[in-house]
Structures are given as structure tokens and as C-alpha cells.
Amino acid sequence: MSLRSPEDMPAAFARAWMDRDAAALAALFAEDADFVNVVGIWWETRPAIEKAHGYALGSFFAESRLVPGRVKVRRLGEDVAVVHCRFLLTGQTGPDGGAAGRRSTILCFVMQRVGAVWRCVTAQNTDIVPGAETQLAGGGGLKPQDYR
């Protein structure tokens, strides 16, 4: 899958996700790309991104639906752009096999054009936690916290 514009990344990412096609999803990334997921797992190559998403799309995200929302693109020159996109995720399976609740995330993609094709060189996924402004460590884990 070739991207002709950085603006195409969120829809292409969601399409590959919905097709459960980890190879197509990974093809959106440069060979030496980085991807950090919502819990800080860091994959550092296209094959690692493909393997991780293949596992997830074949198991706990097998019945999920990923829908892109608001997109903001900031061009940093002719060949580099930062793309932010809000996504809505539904249909995730919980560890007990039951349905998990809906989640909203923001994915940040740093895109680079090589020739006529745009690819992601790094991505960061962040869960949106309503009513919280940070995480607080303690009691054996992290807990969303609001100081306001």
C-alpha cells in the first residue's frame, strides 16, 4: 500500500487494521521505523511492527473496529510531516474472553516522503483518559490522576 500524501495515513492504517492485515499495516512504515504502543512497548523495525500487530489482530483485536476521527497534519518541509489522529476502538476482547469497553486514542505518525511515496518513520499511540491529566505510580501500578 503506497501513500501519496501524509494525510492518507490514518485511513490507510485503519483499513489495514479492519482487514486484519498486519503485512499491509507494516508496509505503511519505513523498514527501520519505530512504533510505541499505549503501554510503552517499543517496536523498532517494520518486521517487529508486523509481528506485534499480527499477534494482536489475530487475538484480542480480532473482532475490533478502529475508526479514525479528527486528523491534523503539520508539514515540516516538503518531505516530512507530523500527522495526529484521534481513533475510536471498539470490540476489543478482554482477558476473560468478554467484550472490553470502547477506547479513544491519539496516534502520532511522523511521515517521510522518499520519491513519490510517504511512509511512517515513527508512531506513538496514547490512550485518552477522560478526567485525568497524568498517571500516578503506586500500589503496584499506574492510576490515572487529576490534580485539578
What labels describe this entry?
six-stranded mixed sheet, globular, two-stranded antiparallel ribbon, 44% strand, 3 helices, alpha+beta, 148 residues, 8 strands, single chain
Work out the helix count: 3
Mean pLDDT: 96
Uncertain segments are: none
Provide the structure class.
alpha+beta
User: What is the helical fraction, as a range of percent?
Assistant: 10-25%
Helices and strands, with pairings:
Elements: H1 9-18, H2 22-26, E1 29-36, E2 42-43, H3 46-57, E3 65-75, E4 80-90, E5 103-114, E6 117-127, E7 134-138, E8 141-145
Parallel strand pairs: 1-6
Antiparallel strand pairs: 1-2, 3-4, 4-5, 5-6, 7-8
Structure description:
By secondary structure, the chain is an alpha+beta fold. The chain has helices at 9-18, 22-26, 46-57, and strands spanning 29-36, 42-43, 65-75, 80-90, 103-114, 117-127, 134-138, 141-145. It has a six-stranded mixed beta sheet. Strand 3 and strand 4 (80-90) form a beta hairpin. The longest helix is centred in the middle third of the chain and has 12 residues, at 46-57. The model has no long low-confidence stretch (mean pLDDT 96).
